[in-house]
Amino acid sequence: MSTTRKILSLIVMMPWLLTGSLAVAHELGSATEAAVEANEMEEGKSKYKDTWVRPDVDWKKYNKIMFGKGEFEWRDVGPARKYRTNTYRSSSKREFGVLPEDQAKFEAIVAEVFDEEMNKSKKFDIVTEAGPGTLYIEGALLDIVSHVPPEFVGSNELYISKIGTVTLVFEIFDAETEEVIAYVEERRTITPPGGNRIDEFSMPSNSVTQLNDIKRWARSSARKLRSELEKAQKRG
Asked: Residue 235 region, left (φ>0) first, then alpha (ψ -120 to 50), else beta?
C-alpha cells in the first residue's frame, strides 16, 4: 500500500462540506493501515488502481453521503514563475511551480465540478450530518504536479502532452460506527483532448484550454467516484 495514505483529508472544499463533521477526527491512512494489519480489509476490485475493502460490508444499506473537509497538496518543485526566458524555455525541466492564484483556480474548479457531479446521483443524497445509512468520505488530491511551463513572451503557441499529474485518494467510513470500510487510490494524469501525445491534430495550449482540460478531468474523476459507489450499492 502506498505511503501517500498517511496524509490529509478530503478532495473538495465545498461549502456544504464544512458544516458537519464526525465526532472523532480521522487522520487519513491511520485507520486504513490498522484495519489492513488486523486482516479486517482485503484487496478489492474497482476501476481504481488500488482498492481495499471490508469483506463484510453491506453496501445496500447506504443511501447518503457525507464528505469531510477538503485539502490539496502541491509538490514543491521550486519557485513559481509567471514568465520564462529563452534559457528557461530550452531547459529540460518538466515540473513547474504554480502561482497561488492559479492553485486557487484549480482547487475552485475541482470543488465546483465535484459538487455538481456528486449531486447528480440518483442513489445517494448528499448530507451534512452523520446518521443511519450514511457513508463518510475523506480523501485528497496529493502530490499535485504541473507540467505547464510559464508563459513565454513573444510566443503564442504552446504544445504540451500533459497538464498535470495528481494522486487521487478516497477513504470511506461508516458515518455512525466510524469504521473504515474502503480505501481507493490512483495516480492520474490531466491531459489535453486526445490523450498524452502531441501530433498533427494537437491544438495549441493556453490558460483557457488548460482550465477546460482541468475541468474535464475533474468531471471524469467525480463521475468515476459516483459510479463506483453506485455500483457497490447495487451489488450489496
From this structure: alpha
- Distance of alpha carbon 207 from alpha carbon 25, whole angstroms: 38
Cα angle vertex 228, ends 221, 174, to 5°?
Answer: 110
pLDDT for residue 94 is more than 90: no
CA atoms within 13 A on the CB side of 111: 19
pTM equals 0.78
Proportion of the chain above pLDDT 90, given as a percent: 47
Q: For residues 154 and 136, is the Cβ–Cβ distance under 8 A?
A: no
**Could you give the CA distance from residue 229 to residue 235 in angstroms, rounded to a whole number?**
10
Cα distance between residue 216 and residue 229, in whole Å: 20
Cα gap 78→96, rounded to integer Å: 7
| pLDDT score of 28 more than 50 | no
- Cα–Cα distance between 6 and 98 in angstroms, integer? 24
Question: What would the grid cell of residue 52 be?
Answer: 481495499
Confidence (pLDDT) at 71: 80
Terminus-to-terminus CA distance in the chain, angstroms? 25
